[in-house]
Amino acid sequence: MPPKILIVDDEAHLRMLIQQTLEELEDEGVELLTASDGEAALEVVRTEAPQLVFLDVMMPKLSGFDVCSRVKHTLGLKEVYIVLLTAKGQEFDKQKGIEAGADLYMTKPFDPDALLARARTVLGL
Amino acid sequence: MPRGTLRNLTRKRADSAAVIAAIVEALGGGIAIEDADGELLVGDRGAGAASRCAVTLDGEHLGWASGGAHAPALAAVLGHLAAKDAERKTLANEVLHLYREVNLIYSFSEKLASTLDLDTVAGMTLDEARHLIAATDGAVMILDEATGRLRPVADFGDVYGAPRGPAWTEGLFAAILAKGQGEIINDVHADPRHVRNGYAIASLICTPLRVKERVTGLIALSSSAPVSYAAADLKLLNTLALQTASALENARLFERTVQAARDRERLAALHKELEVASQIQRAIVPSQFPPFPERREFEIHASMTPAKAVGGDFFDFFLVDADRLGFVIGDVSGKGVPSALFMAVCRTLIKATAHTGGSPEACLAGVNRVLATEGVASMYVTVFYGVLETRTGRVAYCNAGHNPPYVLRGDGGIEPLAQAGGMVVGLFEDAAYEAGQIGLGRGDGLFMYTDGVTEATDPAGEEFTTGRLVPCLARCRGLPLDDVIRTVGAEVTAFAAGAPQGDDITMLALRYLG
Lengths: 125, 514
What we know:
The structure holds two protein chains of two kinds.
Chain A: E1 4-8, H1 12-21, H2 23-26, E2 31-35, H3 38-48, E3 52-56, H4 64-74, E4 81-87, H5 94-100, E5 104-108, H6 112-123
Parallel strand pairs in A: 1-2, 1-3, 3-4, 4-5
Helix pairs in contact in A: 3-4, 4-5
Chain B: H1 5-10, H2 15-26, E1 32-35, E2 40-43, E3 53-57, E4 60-66, H3 71-113, H4 118-132, E5 137-143, E6 150-156, H5 171-179, E7 183-185, E8 203-211, E9 214-223, H6 231-284, E10 298-305, E11 313-321, E12 324-332, H7 336-354, H8 360-374, E13 381-389, E14 394-400, E15 406-408, E16 414-416, E17 421-422, E18 436-439, E19 445-449, H9 451-454, H10 465-475, H11 481-496, E20 505-512
Parallel strand pairs in B: 14-17
Antiparallel strand pairs in B: 1-2, 1-4, 3-4, 5-6, 5-9, 7-8, 8-9, 10-20, 11-12, 12-13, 13-14, 14-18, 15-16, 15-19, 19-20
């Protein structure tokens, strides 16, 4: 099974940016998966079992907190490493992030180098 | 194009995977897609290996399409999809590049906002710049408004921080400063504006720091070996420069404000010290009047108003013995703290010497010797020293370069005291002093003053002069001495009419009562 990363954001250009940031991992055999809302994200997590999820917090319907909480607590997939992405200047409730079980949070605009480095560390590449 | 392209295109979640699946289904099987290493990605391994067609993109071999008569068409479709994918990636890469810039501006401005220290701002800028643009040397340089020279405030490498660095305001840097626009000079030595300076700069990328229309400095990055800086590098450097220029300006203004506050504090401390010095000076001249209330043979009064917080005038009086009253008035050259210190030394020396009981001329000659040999070069003091015999009214005196006192006769007559004495005290070691003598009858007195009285000026610059002093003294006939001094002081003040006091004003008056 190739390592998999799931990118979840309701904004298409951000999905594309994160994908492009992680592109070089594709050539090392990592599969990049995307989802544009929380429900689709949960579906992909269930079916594809990614090791790492970059998860936007502010999304319609299901928020990043909700998705994170369901993955970690409802589905019990504690080993999935979840990075919450939050817009800079936006109030980020750290407590909520901790309760939801997030492993890390990063701010947008994100630093592409830091994002790629984090992915490599988590996947052990 | 990376070798994984075909694999990525056929991945089940890729957009193109659906297109490829539809084609495979339409062709009814019997086809295969392999990557460049021959690994099967889609279809059956046995599908028409003999008729396989290479899938290429811009001449690079990506893999194989097999499927009999359909193989060439399939290969063409895969090539097209790969081209589209490459195009999408190029575009995405460009967007990512812009995004990096946005992120850079965002995080950099955040960092800059956290400091108001000039060196820190410059250092941060340079760190960021060398992280983004390859360079062996670099500097943030500030244009010194006073000298018109560039001064490195942060640097790395060997070139810009060198103690005797190149003349930064010449050649290329001068041109960039003057033009106010960033430049890439990949071959510095071929540039006619380059001034040879022996420093290893083969390629240079440099942009001015601007605040509004004003150029305040430069950011320079250079490489000791030739490199090719690109337009994108200059764009990044310009972005940094834009952020940095205002932050540096803020830091500079802050530094100035802090400096001004420090200066104010230092000034306040100095003022406080002067205030203390002034108090000390006031404390060392007599301030109790009448000083000898039990003595009925004479009356004495004095006042001193320094022009600055501390002054160089002084007066003193003391009983040399039961029958002799010594009195002295003096004026040290110059004003302010040095004069005040010199004055304190003179006054102490005179008093100590006078108490040995010698004559006025012997006393001043002794003080002169000490001051001329051990005193401060070029400082001197004018002194009038007199000794009144309280039994007889005889006064022995010595005037060392001081304004001649006036004799105030009891009948109203006023005359200058005959000159007898010598040179000012403290300049010439072997100066000679002679004594004068005058007899005071009952009700006669002496009025002594410093030149602050007669040289007080009105707003037009005219001096008070003895021409005004003498009539004023005449009007004071019969008044107690404190009133005489107060009247003269008031008249001088009225004459000055608000013009600043240029010199210390000191008066000493003595009257023999018999």
